[in-house]
């Protein structure tokens, strides 16, 4: 091969250096974040702090070496290929390094368990393989919460900056909204990401302060604020949010709803548009869905259990909000409520919150687009000569958006089925397999049944099942297509 030919081939190859540079920086930041739980462990005095020193040094050194090795390839922007690869690689690499404290620390977790827990944290899924949480060092418990908090802010930025550009699952419908505050154009993606981060921090602070005023101690309030606003659901108690009751459940429900709303609307509020949330059809649809589901569960509980109406309403509100937002907190074992609530909880988890929030699963806007398309099709059937165009928020829905949404629904359903079948092949029963697949792919947290239900965890699953679920969490968090596209042969061709 001639030198000219080799240079031409090299020019056509995907340049991984810009991707590696960003990943290296983010891994280094993750290592710096380990200082916080280290300080908490020092204050607790149980001698667990050297774990975070060791894990932090490994992480910072590893990230720095990756960044330095790729620094000569830094450019102004990224290509579409590099953006797809970066989006997936970040959520793959950070859990690998984030798993180190679990392997080196008090849990002495095996590699599969540590990666499962870290992936569950970074994807804000909330499924756990650890039990005896009440007795673990505080630093390790805080680290689980920090992973979810970082994953929450990370997915908001990805959803508002990357996914619309990548045209993933209909997210291109929000491409202009990410930078257009009803007439006020934000100059750079960095500015909106910065404002979202400030809002995210203040929302977390407000949540923690609310929990404090309701009787939680500082540590409990901090951990649960981090995992509430990130809609992650990790708790520092085996009983999850069942450790608390009463007004704390109402407060958590409010903040889970706030975290599941589109953060770009909060940015617009700050930029002088007081009606930003009110005008968003996602917000209206999401709140209406919660109200209907809570009403159904409330009626179901009242018809079976002689609870006081306030307790029934509180438990229905908290647990429905927790599942639909993908938080995964549980205040009671709702498996005892009967078959109808259990079935409703399964399908509730597949609804999800709003796009551009920390919530997960299919997202409410995709259902709205789907119903708009169905309504237009029914109108065409009734009036064959009429012209009916599906609309969203008063605007016509373009064909490429509908194709993306339909493709997302198809791939989600197909992936859900394949994951459930794969789990059943590892020896799991039907309920555990299908609910586990939904919990992982929708990043919901708890599944159904005695094993992985709200009163159990994922610790007793076999290693193969844990790896399958770990992969499903990653795929689901990144809206499927962002991962699937890099698995195609043509992606790696220039």
TrEMBL record:
InterPro entries from the UniProt entry: Cat_transpt (IPR003445), TrkH (IPR004772)
A cellular component annotation (GO) from this entry: plasma membrane
Bilayer disposition of the protein: Multi-pass membrane protein
Residues spanning the signal sequence: none
UniProt keywords, alphabetically: Cell inner membrane, Cell membrane, Ion transport, Membrane, Metal-binding, Potassium, Potassium transport, Transmembrane, Transmembrane helix, Transport
Binding site for K(+): 124-125, 232, 327, 443
Bilayer-crossing regions: 21-40, 52-71, 83-104, 141-163, 198-219, 239-264, 285-305, 342-365, 401-423, 467-489
Lineage: superkingdom: Bacteria
GO molecular function: metal ion binding; potassium:chloride symporter activity
Localization: Cell inner membrane; Cell membrane
Family per similarity comment: Belongs to the TrkH potassium transport family.
Annotated function: Low-affinity potassium transport system. Interacts with Trk system potassium uptake protein TrkA.
The name this protein goes by in its record: Trk system potassium uptake protein
Protein's organism: Sulfitobacter pontiacus
């Amino acid at each position: 091969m001639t030198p000219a030919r080799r240079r031409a081939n090299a020019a056509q190859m995907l340049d991984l250096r810009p991707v590696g540079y960003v990943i290296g920086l983010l891994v280094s930041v993750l290592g710096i974040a380990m200082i916080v739980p280290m300080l908490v462990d020092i204050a607790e005095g149980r001698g667990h702090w050297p774990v975070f020193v060791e894990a932090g040094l490994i992480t910072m050194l590893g990230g720095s070496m990756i960044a330095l090795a790729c620094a000569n390839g830094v450019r102004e922007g990224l290509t579409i290929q590099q953006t797809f690869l970066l989006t997936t690689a970040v959520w793959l690499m950070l859990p690998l390094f984030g798993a180190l404290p679990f392997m080196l620390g008090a849990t002495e977790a095996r590699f599969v368990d540590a990666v499962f827990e870290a992936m569950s944290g970074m994807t804000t899924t909330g499924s756990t393989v650890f039990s005896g949480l009440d007795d673990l060092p505080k630093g390790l418990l805080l680290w689980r919460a920090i992973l979810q908090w970082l994953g929450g802010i990370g997915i908001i930025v990805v959803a508002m900056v990357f996914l619309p550009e990548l045209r993933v699952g209909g997210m291109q419908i929000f491409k202009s909204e990410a930078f257009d505050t009803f007439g006020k154009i934000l100059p750079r993606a960095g500015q909106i990401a910065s404002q979202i981060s400030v809002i995210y921090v203040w929302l977390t602070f407000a949540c923690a302060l609310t929990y404090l005023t309701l009787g939680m101690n500082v540590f409990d309030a901090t951990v649960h604020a981090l995992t509430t606003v990130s809609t992650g659901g990790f708790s520092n108690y085996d009983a999850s949010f069942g450790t608390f009751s009463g007004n704390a459940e109402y407060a958590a429900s409010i903040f889970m709803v706030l975290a599941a709303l589109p953060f770009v609307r909060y940015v617009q509020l700050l930029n002088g548009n007081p009606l930003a949330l009110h005008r968003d059809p996602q917000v209206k649809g999401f709140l209406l869905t919660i109200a209907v589901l809570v009403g159904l569960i409330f009626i179901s509980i009242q018809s079976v259990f002689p609870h006081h109406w306030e307790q029934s309403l509180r438990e229905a509100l908290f647990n429905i909000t927790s599942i639909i937002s993908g938080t995964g907190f549980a205040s009671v074992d709702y498996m005892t409520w009967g078959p109808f609530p259990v079935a409703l909880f399964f399908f509730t988890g597949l609804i999800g919150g709003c796009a551009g929030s920390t919530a997960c699963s299919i997202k409410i806007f995709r259902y709205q687009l789907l119903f708009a398309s169905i309504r237009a099709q029914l109108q065409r059937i009734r009036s064959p000569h009429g012209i009916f165009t599906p609309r969203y928020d008063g605007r016509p829905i373009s064909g490429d958006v509908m194709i993306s949404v339909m493709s997302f629904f198809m791939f989600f359903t197909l992936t859900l089925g394949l994951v459930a079948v794969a789990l059943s092949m590892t020896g799991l029963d039907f309920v555990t397999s299908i609910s586990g697949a939904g919990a992982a792919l929708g990043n919901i947290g708890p599944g159904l049944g005695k094993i992985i239900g709200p009163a159990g965890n994922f610790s007793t699953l076999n290693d193969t099942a844990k790896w399958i679920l770990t992969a499903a969490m990653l795929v689901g968090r990144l809206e499927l297509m962002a991962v699937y596209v890099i698995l195609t042969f043509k992606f790696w061709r220039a």
